[in-house]
Amino acid sequence: MMRGAFDDVPLTALFPLLTAADVDSLYQVAGIVDTARAGRATADWEWVLEHAVFPGTQLGTPVVLGLDVIEHAGGGDQLEFLLQVVWIDPGHLAVEAAVNVACWCETNHATHDADALRLMVGEETSLLKAFRIGAEHLTGWLAEPHDADYWRAKAGLPSRRID
Fold it and tell me: Backbone phi, then psi, for 90, in 5-degree steps?
């Protein structure tokens, strides 16, 4: 996995069918996301060139491009904001955006999506449109409180136990 600024992402290698206008639009959308997270926990964009084509039987979700902003709090608590382009299966990309929180259930599930969105890329929704919608959700979430308990309450999840 490679990491860096969005300007470093080899968009035409990852998504060879993009037009020059599409690439410019993706840079504009990523700029909006980067502005929304300025002054907060920083994270690099991540990409996997080997995932430009569906990687086959890999365990987990093959991420092509993504941003994962993690904010840690005391007592092992965590809040995570995600925007990713992933393979669902051969020939089917999706854009996923989510807010994840650390799990405080009796059974430890590790994390929970407090809010999430998955947009399938295809004839009705282009990669650019899906990325823009995912980015709009992410920037909206970044404007919300950066308190994992706020997100747990919003999702109806158990709050953190204070010992």
Answer: -55, 125
Q: Which of 111, 112, 108, 129 is nearest to 120 (CA)?
A: 129
Give the length of the chain.
Answer: 163
The separation between the first and the last C-alpha atoms of the chain, rounded to the nearest angstrom, is 38
pLDDT score recorded for residue 54:
84
SS3 content of the chain, % helix, strand, coil (to 5): 35, 30, 35
- 17-22: long-range pairs with CB below 8 Å, 24+: 18/127, 18/128, 22/126, 22/127, 22/128
- φ, ψ of residue 87 to 5 degrees: the values are -85, 130
Integer CA distances (angstroms), 20 to 11, 75, 121, in order: 10, 47, 19
Tokens of 2: 């490679």
State pLDDT tens for residues 121-150: 998 899 999 999 999 999 999 998 888 989
Rounded-to-integer distance, Cα 126 and Cα 147, Å: 33
Percentage of the chain modeled with pLDDT above 70: 93
Residue 111: beta bridge partners?
A: 102
